[in-house]
Amino acid sequence: MMPARPNLDVAGSRDDPHAQARRARQQPLLLHSMSVFREIFEIVFAHRAISTVVEVGVESGQVSGIYAELGASTVYCVDPAPSDQLRATLTANPTLQLVETPSPQVLSELPVGELYVLDGDHNYAVLAAELDWIMAHAPDAAIVLHDVLWPWARRDLYYQPSRLDPDQRHPDSADGPTVWHDDLTPAGFVGAGAFTTARHAGGDANGVLTAVEDALSHHQDDGWHLELVPAIFGMGIVYRRASPAAAELTAALGPYSNSRLLHAMENNRIALYTRVLQMQYEAAAHANDADQLANTVAAQQKHIARLQAQLSAAGIDTDSAAPGATSTSA
């Protein structure tokens, strides 16, 4: 058998040497969408008979459409506050059904799915409740989760205004995490009013991955298993080892979940991005300082002009009254 040829198309051709650069600049500075994981979803669909998908947390509808393209007949798109654009996108595809009741309350109101995609509230309280319900009522389902790595693996995020009771939340802050130190900072991964961040990381009942681990522990007799793809903030795939084609699914996901290369690239990506955030914050601070200095100078100039006008009105020659002025009289 001939060895597989490397995919040289990604680099561009001799006649089109800038193809890779064009594709790179067409992507957002920060990759964050679940659409990037399409090939992982293709693997899941290839090993499961998936008709009904329950998607908690809807982006633009693009990812929702992927499930339909891969064979789902109905996708319940759970978003309590959809934009007009999202409504229009979902309405245009009869497979996609908008559901505005929040999760986890909505789960019991929907048909049981073969695939659950959890990318809504990235905090322990919500994820723990969602996972507990799914594991109890959909034992043969696959569960896909986003943001199981930094920054929300061990630290809660709270969308604002939060629906959680005070005792379900940790003390939070508008500041955000960075990989360059362990404290929150206004120069970090901030929500700009959209979300707040738990002030401390780690400990019990804190973060997405912690919720997954606890759910696996609570349902350990049922043999639930986690595969973690270490890319784009981390994708988790949870399923029972006794569920259909579980062994084959594990084998197919292995090259991704066991990739030290992906892990190293993700660490480098978040380091670079949080450095950019810090530089943007510092640039904005310098610009603000410059604006304040310009305003101060302008105010002082106006004050000087007023004083000069008052002196002139009093018949005082401001030039001769200036310190160091010399008389020219004989």
Cα(first) to Cα(last) distance is 112 Å
Q: What is the CATH architecture assignment?
A: 3-Layer(aba) Sandwich
Might you state the CATH topology name? Rossmann fold
Quaternary state of this entry equals single chain
Number of helices: 8
Q: Could you name the ranges where pLDDT drops below 50 across 5 or more consecutive residues?
A: none
Total number of domains: 1
Number of strands: 10
- Structural class from helices and strands? alpha/beta
- Biggest beta-sheet profile: 7 strands, mixed
Report the portion of residues in β strands: 5-15%
Query: Which CATH class is shown?
Result: Alpha Beta
What percent of the residues sit in helical stretches (DSSP H or I)? 25-40%
The 3D shape can be described as elongated
Order of strands across the biggest sheet? 3-2-1-4-5-10-9
The overall average pLDDT, rounded, is 90
- CATH superfamily caption: Vaccinia Virus protein VP39
Protein name: Methyltransferase family protein
Pfam family, one: Methyltransf_24
GO molecular function, one term: methyltransferase activity
GO biological process, one term: methylation
